[in-house]
Give the backbone structure.
Amino acid sequence: MRYSLSLILCFSLLTACVQDVVKIDDESADQQSSMSDSDKRVYKRALEGIKKKRLKQAQVILNKLLKKYPNASGVLANKAVIYASKNRLSKAEEFFEKSLKINDKLVQARNNLAVIYRKKGKFSEAERMLEAAIVSNPYYASAYYNLGILQELYLHKPDKALENYRLYLDLKKAGDKRVSQWVSLLQRQLKSRK
């Protein structure tokens, strides 16, 4: 009974804390160098709009930029963020995939696409995408976090999940009390299974 209760508590905590899709920072979008200075300022306004949940305004800006820069990976990825925010998962998936075909170094886009895959029940694809994000940037903590949750809750790989939670914590300078508690709980659960 005690084991079941702690497992339910852990599941509730984790599902409440799964990271969602986040905007793509302008530093990670390499098309910036080809944009005019005025278009860079316009793009930053779109990013600010996404951050402040002014999605309609941001979408109008991104659409205009895509007409001028159809291969702008960051613009495509942020358009996907807007679709994801509106729960239009198939469109979000389409735009993240387009973005990554142009620039496969966008680790945030990989992380976000994995979140979309998870929401659509494509767990194996999500795992592969998060592993690719980690290969692309082994210092991107969110990928380890999301991979740990995916492996524990959806793929039933608690040993691998524990490893990824630990790697996540190693990268978080300020720490993360919740994940530290999850690690302790998962360690106890794995120990009791042996």
Q: What stands out?
A: Confidence is low (pLDDT under 50) at residues 1-18. Residues 2-193 form a domain with the Serine Threonine Protein Phosphatase 5, Tetratricopeptide repeat fold (CATH 1.25.40.10).
